[in-house]
Design a protein that fits this description.
rod-shaped; about 10% strand; 8 strands; alpha/beta; about 325 residues; Rossmann fold; eight-stranded mixed β-sheet
Length: about 325
Amino acid sequence: MKTGDPNKADVNSQIATLTGQINTLTSRENDLSTTQVTAGKIINDAELPAAPARPSVPLFLASGGMVGLLLGVGTGLVRERTDKRVRRAADVPRRATVPVLGVLPTRLRPRLDDVYPAGEPTGRTFDRLRNEALASLADDQRVIVVTGASRGLAATLVAANLAAALARTGAAVVLVQAGGAPGALGLPAGPGLAEVLAGTASLDEAARRVPRVANLRVVTGGGGLLQSQALGAILARLRSGTGYVVVEAPSAAASADAQSLASHADTAILAVELRRTRHAEIVDAAEQLRRVGTPVLGAVVFPRLRKPLPVTPVPAAAADQTVVLGSVT
């Protein structure tokens, strides 16, 4: 630059400043390059871990329990909403508006050759069922029909034990097994309802005494004529000549025979088997009975039946007894 240039002084000042900074950095670099560095030494060896740091068992258990609880509650709610089978006795009045008359003990095994004694819990349940049935019947009402809401031995079990409970009061009772359970109450083969409807046997021959239950007679066996007019005449005769008549009808889910039989009865009882009967079957059975003007007294609920106990044969001499129904008082 020329001597008189006005910027020459500023440039000289900048050169002096930068030169000073260079000298300072050079001095620091010399100090760092001559400094002795000590790497240190190991005083003690590191201790090995006694347990893994992860996973944390308490954390995993708590998290798994919480997730399982949420999944279980969600599954239960979904099952409650979508399940079509009756799981608890409380489902019957809640889903089908049918009152529950009795709940039988769990792990019940049906007996086809005998009834439950009055001293057992199951027998006492049927005694209470008898009392409720009698309280609902008028003086001139005598016929009770029992039908299962689903297929199976439900109606057979309830009808036989209800008839025995009525017979324990001293009244003459006739059990009409229109469902046709084989070997029912231990009676041997003989003329039954099918033969009476077909005209090959008389009603007096078909009504046979049950040796182990006083005051109880049984008309065994059903058939394909349960919707005939002759059946109404038979039930009318039984009504006039017997204290009470209990009719075991086929399942309402199997045919319309239960509805036909109910039209000749004064009241009806539904047999509901848990984990087998569907809610829709109870609603349909109750509606079938109400459409023919038969009031539904209620339902008897019991767990899903296991395999029936073997039938004990009855000696022919003890079973071959008939009764003239017109003379029973």
